[in-house]
Amino acid sequence: MPRLPVYSLRRRLLALLIGVVAVLWGLSAVVAFRTAHGEADELFDAQLEQVAETLLAIVATGDSPQVAEEMVEHQHDYPLPVAFQAWRRQESGEWSLLVRSSEMPEVPATRSPGFDEQEVDGVLWRFYAMDHGHSPYRVIVGQNHDARYRLAGEIALHLLAPILIGLPLIALAIWIVVGRALAPLDAVARAVGGLEPGCLQPVQVKGPLPAEIAPLVTSLDALVTRLAEALDNEKRFTADAAHELRTPLAALRIQAQVASRSDDEGGRRHALSQVLSGVERMTHLVEQLLTLARLDPDAALAGGMRADLVDVAGQVCSVLANHAIKRGQSLSLEAPDALEVAGNRWWLEVLLRNLVDNALRYTPDGGRVRVVVDQATHSLRVEDDGPGIVPDMQEQVLTRFARGQDQDAEGCGLGLSIVARIVRILGASLDFRPGLEREGGAGLAVTVRFPSPGAGPET
């Protein structure tokens, strides 16, 4: 089976979360930068307006141009210097220059009031022109556009500094939070790693489990329980097989030695007959043991399988009819046309075959065995007129290798144990009642009631 690729959930979560945060942080930074840049431009425009108003007020009062230049050059409210010039309209309509700062390029006084941008000598400037009402004065102030842009960028970056510094801190916080969030997974991994093959216990995790992990732990517990049951079944199978095969094998060995050493033809034939009979009993025992080993609760109702109980009963009765004929027994079947029950067909065959075979083995020669499929009660009943089972032994005969009061009957004591286990797997119920009446005995009726369609397993 090819090994699936393995990746780190922690690293994937960190990469996704930090990546998303970084993208959102970057978009926020871009928006913040553009917003800060726009606000810086508005601030510089406000500076131009304020300087223009101040300069216009000074020149309109008639103060000397030197006073105006000194007042403007010593304004330190804003970090970006402002170039300026002031004009006066003569009676002839021409403009005469009153004052101009050293940084101010030569621009005509006839420009329209308000803001505009103009390239002068290869340098882009932003100008603001302002008149003093109906007076003959006009001022024009300006700033180097490149300097404005550079200073606006510096202001925006200064505002973005906390955002840029905060990103690593957020990444660290995400790393810590993801680590704490995945701590239950680490705890589950340690708990599963601590399980011992010889002592499979439910996964023990300290503290409450997140809702997302609880189903995983529940599934692991169910798996561990099934593994423990499988190991127990294997141990029981090994122990049972070793225990039950030891005596028959010893008996076969003795009979084989007798046959090989006997000079009497009749004695040899008798010994060989005993060997064949022992082989048949051992074959039956091994088949029953293998049947027990194959029982798998998960396969019983896999995929919601259903089978026709009437068809199964007919097939089993036809197979075992020869056994009944050899002993002069009557084997009959009473059933409707069809009755579907939940379960794997093979399990139903094993169940019914063991019930009928058990009845034939314990019913005397010439006795009666009847199989009844009851549609009204959704049940299967196997009746016989044999010795029956006393109430005190009804629970005991459901265990492995338990025998009824007739210890001389053929069998290995596994039939009803297999039946009880299949009944439990199918969620059905099992009970014992008196069977067919006969002189000197009450017989036995074993009834298996299956869950009705749509109903849950019986308890």
TrEMBL record:
Keywords: ATP-binding, Kinase, Membrane, Nucleotide-binding, Phosphoprotein, Transferase, Transmembrane, Transmembrane helix, Two-component regulatory system. InterPro entries: 2CSK_N (IPR013727), HAMP_dom (IPR003660), HATPase_C_sf (IPR036890), HATPase_dom (IPR003594), His_kinase_dom (IPR005467), HisK_dim/P_dom (IPR003661), HisK_dim/P_sf (IPR036097), Sig_transdc_His_kin-like_C (IPR004358). Residues 179-232 form the HAMP domain. Residues 240-454 form the Histidine kinase domain. It is a multi-pass membrane protein. One of its GO terms (molecular function) is ATP binding. Its EC number is 2.7.13.3. It is found in: Membrane. SMART domains: HATPase_c (SM00387), HisKA (SM00388). One of its GO terms (cellular component) is plasma membrane. It catalyses: ATP + protein L-histidine = ADP + protein N-phospho-L-histidine. The chain crosses the membrane at residues 155-178. Coiled coil: none annotated. PANTHER family: SENSOR HISTIDINE KINASE YKOH, SENSOR PROTEIN QSEC. This is histidine kinase.
